[in-house]
Amino acid sequence: MKNRLHEWRDWLLRNGNGGSQFQWASNHSTQQVQTIFYKLRPALCLNGFTSHQLKLIQLVTRKHFKDLSYVRFGGETSCSQQLVVYTDSKNDRDLLMKEVKDNYLKEAEMKIRAAIGFRHVIDLLSSAQKLIVGHNCFLDIAHIYSKFLGPLPLTAEEFVSSINTYFPHIVDTKVLLNSNNVRLPRMKKSNTSLSSAFSLLCPQIAVNSNKNSDLAFRPCVNVEVQVDDTRSSNWSSGVKHEAGYDAFMTGCVFAQACKNIGIDFKSHSSSENLTHNDKLQKHINLLYLSWISGDIIDLSSGNMIAEPSGSNNFRIRRPKVLFENIVLIWRFPPRLNASKLRECISKVFGPNSVTSVYLVDETAIFLQFSKAELVSEFLVLKESLERSNDAISVLHPLSELLQGGNTCAAGYETYKEICSSPISKVLFAEQADAIGIRWKTKLVGSEPEAQSQEPESFSKENAATTAPFLSKKIEVGNKQRVIDDLLSGRSRCDEVIDSFLTAEVKQIGATN
């Protein structure tokens, strides 16, 4: 290698002004060399060499030749080109290496930019401080944040503060449409879903809208869409729930809503920024944190604000979630749905005892009581009924819930413990089984190991005949409620009352 590079350099100095092509003496037909110019300098282009041979050429060039430099360009792929470049001075060589390094940096930047992909769009929107328009878009913004900006913060307040630095101007058309001066009278009887709002506000361009309705003759903002370098004011080449067409519908709804609050697009200058429009300003940076509950959060301040008056007339208001009032029930009989579970428990604790039932999945529910103390009363009663096998426990209204002997129940803290496990299962009941839960009832503020033991007040002689309601864990108020339920006609037969009275007499005799 050293001799051949000497030959090429000597040939180059002799024939610097031109001449025949240098011939590389080689026994391998694949090895070819060609003299070219690289950045206005003569260079030897190497083709057909193995990676080991190229490494030898690089080492020999670096060790024995001060006026030759080994250069690779075109990246580290199979398409890269290997050169030995001649330089006539040390300064020229330093300049060459600087130019090569600059090329490497440009190639690396191109790779990074290609890998970034759609992140460029997010960065451009953020740097341009554009007005971001979405429909019920809190989760959309959260999804964009997690995919392109960073891990989601732990709290909504931290998220709101962070997102406002990237996108300081966001308009939610769901909030905009629920303001009294934007929503059409007919919309109150319908809803403000994207497809419904699009059909009502933009009937002239909506797909499958009623073109004969009275709204079709109302003045509508003319929306033009650029498609394949052509402009169309009647583009309808999509269906709802396709991302492009949903964006089109959102834009049309936003434009029409702006017209309804008095923004005149004909007189509106293209250079005028809508984010500073006085009529739109009060609707910017307000997002529905939860459409069901009607919670609205202000992205500018992080504060919760009241929903516009009249906007919740058509929505069922759910009670506020109180975690201390919640009991978690899972592995109940599959034939029971949420309404049947609610009815079953309400028979025992009263018609107004259960405020709401939330379905976790087909194996588990959250049941919220009206009072926190009802949680512990329910758990104690469930545990007591499962310990007994007499007529009262069989005919008790809760027996339908406990049928099969697999039903588990606990407070809300247990739900947090189960879900904090690194084990992840699709169904909640499978998740609980996977982390090794063996108990069926966990009383509030107690350990499951203590619950698995029999109370000392129960002896083997009277365990079969003593009613579960007379356990020391059940207070007098609970016993009175059971008696009232039985005497009010909720019991199925008179034998239940007789059984209860007999058990009470035996319990009195045992204690005396």
TrEMBL record:
GO terms for molecular function: nucleic acid binding. Its cofactor is a divalent metal cation. Pfam families: CAF1 (PF04857). It comes from the Eukaryota. Signal peptide: none annotated. Belongs to the CAF1 family. This is Uncharacterized protein. It comes from Manihot esculenta (Cassava).
